[in-house]
Design goal:
Elements (H helix, E strand, L loop, with lengths): L2 E5 L2 H18 L4 E4 L6 H10 L9 E4 L1 E3 L10 H13 L6 E2 L8 H14 L5 E4 L21 E4 L2 H7 L12 E4 L2 H5 L4 E5 L5 H9 L17 E6 L9 H9 L8
Helix pairs in contact: 1-2, 2-3
Bound molecules: fructose -6-phosphate (F6R).
Length: 259
C-alpha cells in the first residue's frame, strides 16, 4: 500500500514535497523530475522557488506527464507553455533539459515512441509528481487504460474536458485528444508522489488508495508501486477509511526515513 500523509493544507504539502526534491537535487545534481501540470502541483513549484536559491539546478532534467494534441504552437494552455511558465522560468531550470510530449499533429504517430526513448535515455524519472482527476486518471490515463500502457495518444473523457474547461474560453475549446505517459511509463519512476486537494478529489483518492486495483480507476496503480507517497489535505482525505491509521503512522514516522 502507498504511504498516505494527511496535511492541513496544500501549502504544507507543497513544503514537504519541495524539501524532498531539494534533498534529491543536492544528492543528485542531474536528477530527473517528473512534472505534472494542472492546479495540484502548483504549491510544490511555489515552495521550490525560495528553497532552490543557491542550489545548482543547471543539470536538473525534467519530463512532463502529458500534453494536449492539436493546440497551436505556443498556445498559452499547452502544457509546454504551462511548464515553461510555472516551472522552468520560476525555478531557473535549463529549458533544453525539460521535455514535454509533442502534441503537434505533425509527427504525432511516433511522438509516443520518441518520448519513451528519451525517458529511457535519461535513465528514468527519480521523483514523479502526480495529480488525480475526479474520474481517477493519472497523467491522462483515463478509466480503462492498461496498467502496461506506454506514452500514446488518448481521448479525454467528457468529465476531464469539463474539469479542464476552466483554463479555456469554453468547453468546445478543450482538445479532445492528448498524448500522455502510460501507466506502465509512470510505474517505472523510482518514487511516485500523488497529491490531491479538496473535497472534489475525495472519492478518487479513496478509490485509488483503498479500493480495488483496477484499470477502471487508473490511480489505483499506485498500490502496485514499491515507493508511492500520497499526500492529501483534510478535504481530499474525507472518504478514507483508514485516515486515523495514516495520521498515526505519519506522527510516528522514523526521522531517518524521509518521504
Ligand atoms: C496533469 C495531469 C492530470 C492532472 C489531473 C488533476 O499533467 O496529468 O492527471 O494531474 O487532471 O488536475 P488538477 O490538478 O488541475 O485538479
Amino acid at each position: 500500500m502507498a504511504e498516505v500523509i494527511i496535511l492541513p493544507s496544500p501549502t504544507a504539502a507543497g513544503s514537504l514535497v519541495a524539501d524532498e526534491i531539494v534533498r534529491l537535487v543536492q544528492r543528485r545534481p542531474d536528477a530527473v523530475l517528473g512534472l505534472a501540470t494542472g492546479s495540484t502541483p502548483l504549491p510544490v513549484y511555489k515552495a521550490l522557488v525560495p528553497r532552490l536559491q543557491g542550489v545548482d539546478v543547471s543539470q536538473v532534467r525534467g519530463f512532463a506527464l502529458d500534453e494536449y494534441v492539436g493546440l497551436p504552437e505556443g498556445d498559452p494552455e499547452s502544457y509546454r507553455a504551462v511548464i515553461e511558465r510555472e516551472v522552468v522560468r520560476p525555478l531557473g531550470l535549463d529549458p533544453a533539459r525539460i521535455q514535454v510530449p509533442k502534441g503537434s499533429l505533425d509527427g504525432i504517430e511516433h511522438a509516443g515512441e520518441d518520448y519513451e526513448r528519451a525517458l529511457t535515455e535519461a535513465g528514468g524519472v527519480d521523483i514523479q509528481l502526480l495529480g488525480i482527476g475526479t474520474d481517477g486518471h493519472i497523467g491522462f490515463n483515463e478509466p480503462g487504460s492498461s496498467f502496461a500502457s506506454l506514452t500514446r495518444v488518448k481521448t479525454l473523457t467528457e468529465q476531464t474536458r469539463e474539469d479542464n474547461a476552466r483554463f479555456f474560453p469554453s468547453i468546445d475549446d478543450v482538445p479532445v485528444h492528448c498524448i500522455t505517459q502510460g501507466l506502465g511509463t509512470i510505474m517505472r519512476a523510482r518514487h511516485l508522489v500523488l497529491l490531491a486537494f479538496g473535497a472534489g478529489k475525495a472519492d478518487a483518492v479513496a478509490g485509488a488508495v483503498e479500493g480495488a486495483v483496477t484499470a477502471s480507476l487508473p490511480g489505483s496503480a499506485v498500490q502496485l508501486h514499491p515507493h508511492a507517497t500520497v499526500i492529501v489535505d483534510e478535504a481530499a482525505a474525507s472518504s478514507l477509511r483508514f485516515a486515523d491509521y495514516y495520521r498515526y503512522a505519519f506522527a510516528n514516522k522514523p526521522a531517518w526515513q524521509g518521504l
